[in-house]
Amino acid sequence: MASLPAIFGFAADFVSQCGVCICQNMTMITLSVAGLLLALNVALISSILSVDQLIG
Asked: What is the largest distance, in Å, between two alpha-carbon atoms of the chain?
């Protein structure tokens, strides 16, 4: 039977690795959302400019 400190150490290591994975995933999600918003802003600005040119 494994000792309690060993089990606790394994659990702590597992949790810290999961935390790193979650942090990396959150960073990727944040970057992709930021990129999507940037693309939407660019599309919006270009459409506003083209409409402005059509009206002007």
From this structure: 81
pLDDT in tens, 28-42: 989 999 999 999 999
Q: Label residue 12 by pLDDT band (50, 70, 90).
A: confident
| Rounded Cα gap, residues 4 and 10, in angstroms | 10
Q: How far apart are CA 40 and CA 50, in angstroms?
A: 15
Residues in the chain: 56
How far apart, in whole angstroms, are the C-alpha atoms of residue 56 and residue 52? 6
* Distance separating alpha carbons of residues 17 and 50, to the nearest angstrom: 49
Helix (H) or strand (E) holding 1: none
Q: What is the pTM of this model?
A: 0.55
